[in-house]
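haha ok so turns out i had the wrong file open the whole time. this is the CORRECT one, sorry everyone. sequence first:
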Amino acid sequence: MRNKIVAGNWKMNGTFEESTNLFNAISERKDEFPKSVEVMVAPPYLYLKSLKDQKVDDVVVAAQNCADKEKGAYTGEVSVSMLKSVGIKHVIVGHSERRIIYGESIKDVSEKVVLVLQNDMIPIVCVGEELNDRQKGRHFKIIEEQLDSVLNLAPELFEKVVIAYEPVWAIGTGETATPEQAQEMHRFIRQKLSDIYGQLVQTTRILYGGSVKPDNAEEIFSKPDVDGGLVGGASMNADNFLAIIKAAG
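then structure:
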């Protein structure tokens, strides 16, 4: 049995005060979290240490991104070792907004995954197709190509990887893949990874990300290969986020 993960990606939203209040509102209701669900939030870089220092064991604080270099003259970047030094253990890698807006390639994502794992941290590796790809029937091919970022890892490193499938056409649009579409892609991902890693993949968590809301979470999470969600806008409201966490349980 794979414990589910519900991770809130706050993106570039919220002042320090707003983010602290949201974190507190979520943490104060930790007694309502199902025991089988791991809860995470990924605030902007500036707030990571402050929220981590609150030492709320039931809410994991994760980073939204990291640099693809360990150190050097890369103005504005934040390295994996910097994140590790303030206690962060989970990093979202390859989010569609990083791939599309900032032009991150599969090679860039692969380098980030390796750096995260080399620092004994856990990457949440995002894969997903755009609407045009799905309409042309290329969605499986696109996902297969993006999975290359984790296919050459040693099994002991792959064990730590979390995958997040995010249909780009359903992020922030109000559109959502049907539960059947989500399950179909999650099953495809698990099978592709199984071709390399065998039974090890049965413990790999594959999250769904794409306009997860309280009113659709339970049906999506009920599918056998969906192991929770990477939640965007709905994670910015404590009541909505808690409803999604409960749905995962």
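The chain has a mean pLDDT of 95.
again sry for the mixup
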